[in-house]
Amino acid sequence: MIGKISHGNSFGDCLDYLTRVKQDKQPSEKRVWHIIDSDGVRLNVGEEGWRKMATSDVERPTLTRSKIKDPCGHISLGFSPNDSDRMTDDFMLKIAHEYMEKMGITDTPYIIVRHTDKEHPHCHIMFSRVNYNGKIIKPVTNLYRNKAVCADVTKRHNLTMGTDSLNLDTSKLRGSERSRVEIIQAATEVLHDVTITDWPMFRNALARRGIIANALFSGEGDERKLKT
Prior knowledge:
By secondary structure, the chain is an alpha+beta fold. The chain has 2 domains: 2-156, 2-Layer Sandwich (BirA Bifunctional Protein, domain 2); 170-226. Helices cover 32% and strands 17% of the residues. It has a 5-stranded antiparallel β-sheet, sandwiched between helices. A two-stranded antiparallel ribbon has the order 6-7. Helix 1 (11-18) crosses helix 2 (50-59). The longest helix is centred in the C-terminal third of the chain and has 17 residues, at 175-191.
């Protein structure tokens, strides 16, 4: 299991992405999303203006206080294809609820949307980072806590341990996201090569894969060292 934290200001843009607004004219059986849970949100899916209504419900707590940076919370939970057979909507929702509680995402409006457009099961959680009491939900910006919670939930439910971007199929990615994952995968492959023993060899191995790596150093003169 992996939790990916995104940051954003626009509740509307986030909901458009989660519910694939561009698929509205397609038959329902061809859509790659469905809502599996929500709280404090009116979801009259299919009615004219339903997204605007849902967006205003999620956003409402943020209007009770001064503006904050990235008020729209968005976290995706990804699971290994090895766990696909277990990932019913009910089980995925159980995992999502446990994750949310451990991350402090409570007492706030939210929508959980499952996507079916990739090989690995995954869902998205959209929520207000200001709860019903007007307090900011700060733990969701803590990447270390996210990693620890994912590890704990993975172990408790005997899920496959996530390896971040290493197992992603890059052919299904686009633009900068594809480039980022390809670089991570190539660098990891090189690092696991026991014949690569120093920086020049590492840099040259990446160059053979079409990746230019520039070193960052600290110190001066004889104290100059490669940053890690």
